[in-house]
Write a structure and sequence with these properties.
mainly beta; 107 residues; 5 strands
């Protein structure tokens, strides 16, 4: 819905972050030895403003400019919403089980 007008730029990895499952939504936080899989979209200022509202930018999440890399080792700058609350007691999502929200099937 929020990204319906955005252009998909590919799958990327954010190093020095870890991912948590908060139930209805995910959260990333800074971490020295972990990385997070995600998708990169090219958006305009209007979409960015709407995402800031959705993500509770400034209170629940802080929007940060980070560097991401794809499987061809191409690096780009991207905005990420970094969780601004405690993840104590929350479920950490391993790199193998990312991205968040994708159900992994065992054969």
């Amino acid at each position: 819905m929020f990204l319906s007008e955005a252009k998909f730029a590919g799958d990327f990895i954010a190093e020095s972050f870890e991912l948590y499952d908060l139930g209805n939504y995910p959260a990333i936080i800074h971490s020295e030895n972990n990385k997070v899989k995600g998708q990169l979209y090219v958006i305009d200022k209007h979409i960015l403003n709407n995402l800031d509202i959705l993500e509770g930018e400034g209170s629940l999440y802080i929007r940060e400019l980070i560097r991401v890399v794809n499987d061809k080792n191409e690096s780009r700058e991207a905005y990420a919403y970094v969780y601004n609350q405690s993840v104590s007691g929350k479920v950490k999502v391993s790199y193998e089980n990312q991205p968040w929200g994708v159900i992994k099937k065992v054969l």
